């Protein structure tokens, strides 16, 4: 199992909307994430900087490569792009983080 972490940037004043949308995560998107091997996925918010911190476990990170080509993923990006920083293709701007410590 691999652990991955990343940050994203939420637009100011959008924390409640971000949570509301994730509380109503689409079943087909949830199934895609599970089918990809993603487990134990959490997103945290730093309310002062509007930085989102995501951390997940995945059986094989290579399984994540095709996610951007999945129609439900692209629809989700379109659904979210009005409340967070995004790339020209609609995907969220993500900064991968390097693990420097882990206590198991």
UniProtKB/TrEMBL annotation:
<keyword id="KW-0684">Rhamnose metabolism</keyword>
<dbReference type="InterPro" id="IPR013448">
    <property type="entry name" value="L-rhamnose_mutarotase"/>
</dbReference>
<protein>
    <recommendedName>
        <fullName>L-rhamnose mutarotase</fullName>
        <ecNumber>5.1.3.32</ecNumber>
    </recommendedName>
</protein>
<dbReference type="InterPro" id="IPR011008">
    <property type="entry name" value="Dimeric_a/b-barrel"/>
</dbReference>
<keyword id="KW-0413">Isomerase</keyword>
<keyword id="KW-0119">Carbohydrate metabolism</keyword>
<dbReference type="Pfam" id="PF05336">
    <property type="entry name" value="rhaM"/>
</dbReference>
<dbReference type="GO" id="GO:0062192">
    <property type="term" value="F:L-rhamnose mutarotase activity"/>
</dbReference>
<dbReference type="InterPro" id="IPR008000">
    <property type="entry name" value="Rham/fucose_mutarotase"/>
</dbReference>
<keyword id="KW-0963">Cytoplasm</keyword>
